[in-house]
Design goal:
The chain is mainly α. The chain has twelve helices and two strands, in the order H-H-H-H-E-E-H-H-H-H-H-H-H-H. It has one domain. The chain has a two-stranded antiparallel ribbon with strand order 1-2. Strand 1 and strand 2 form a beta hairpin. The protein is elongated, with a radius of gyration of 23 Å.
């Protein structure tokens, strides 16, 4: 018997245009805001980051490290041990190190979501170009915020390394400070980008520094909040950096309470609000 010839099928060819059309036609939760092209924003940002001067990139990491060395070791030799979370006695350097890690995450996120975003928004006209494609304003907002998180992650890991070398990491819970630093960075980056979208000149960026410095000095980073009058304490407790500092201190020594969860919820709400404000602002500016 002779076997019938098997009819070979030609390999199916994938039409890129068809793939794009199907992708765009896929249902999205917020079709007018989000198109699912977040990875394109991240890819473009990563290519730009690779060409930057890395010395400039890590410049914001140096300031908290210098504070840790000067205050933690220098002033710490005069202060001695202090009460930490839960009443546990710790060294002064171990007391301020988690606070400075929160500050480092804040610095990295704000530097990336203000100065860089301002240039792209007002001079590079990059966002205008992005929003002429299939991208939505939420794609751009989330992409830029996540790029700021990359800088915050670099700062957090580097600062944790400095803490480990100085012997300031005393609990395995301290490893949770790295994702906590990313949460802090996300909150500040989202709000920073929303605020920057309203600025028209480089001089207005000084307002960011004007806010950052007092918040760093008065958010119980270098001394307990109890030194302030009660009315001032309530004001300080409304500041985002104070919540970041307290959350970091709890994680550093493994003292987890409902207050720790409250600090986390504060930053989750801050992230959601900042992302929403940035998205709506970009849509108003470029999708009229």
């Amino acid at each position: 018997m002779t076997s019938l010839p098997v009819q070979e099928r030609e390999p199916a060819t994938i039409d890129p245009v068809t793939v794009v059309e199907r992708r765009l036609a896929a249902p999205r939760p917020f079709p007018s805001l989000y198109s699912g092209n977040l990875l394109a924003v991240l890819e473009r940002g990563w290519i730009a980051i690779k060409t930057q001067n890395w010395v400039i990139l890590i410049s914001g990491f140096v300031e908290p490290v210098l504070y840790l060395l000067a205050m933690g070791i220098g002033v710490g030799a005069l202060v001695g041990d202090v009460p930490g979370p839960g009443g546990r006695t710790i060294s002064y350097a171990a007391y301020i190190a988690p606070a400075l890690l929160a500050t480092s995450a804040m610095n990295g996120a704000l530097y990336d979501s203000t100065t860089n975003v301002f240039f792209k928004l007002n001079y590079g006209k990059i966002y205008q170009t992005m929003l002429q494609t299939a991208m939505g304003p939420m794609d751009v907002a989330l992409g830029e915020i996540m790029l700021a998180l990359l800088r915050g992650l670099i700062y957090a890991i580097g600062f944790m390394g400095v803490m480990a070398v100085l012997g300031l990491v005393t609990s395995w819970w301290a490893l949770a400070m790295i994702p906590a630093a990313l949460l802090i960075a996300f909150g500040f980056a989202s709000i920073g980008m929303a605020v920057t979208s309203y600025m028209k000149t480089f001089q207005q960026l000084d307002i960011i520094i004007f806010v950052m410095l007092p918040m760093f000095l008065f958010s119980a980073t270098l001394y307990p909040i109890e030194v302030f009058p009660e009315a001032v304490q309530w004001f300080v407790k409304a500041l985002p950096l104070w919540h970041g500092v307290e959350m970091m201190r709890h994680l550093a020594v493994g003292h987890l309470t409902w207050a720790t969860l409250g600090h986390i919820v504060y930053f989750v709400a801050m992230c959601a609000l900042g992302t929403l404000l940035t998205t709506l602002r970009l849509r108003k500016l470029f999708l009229r």
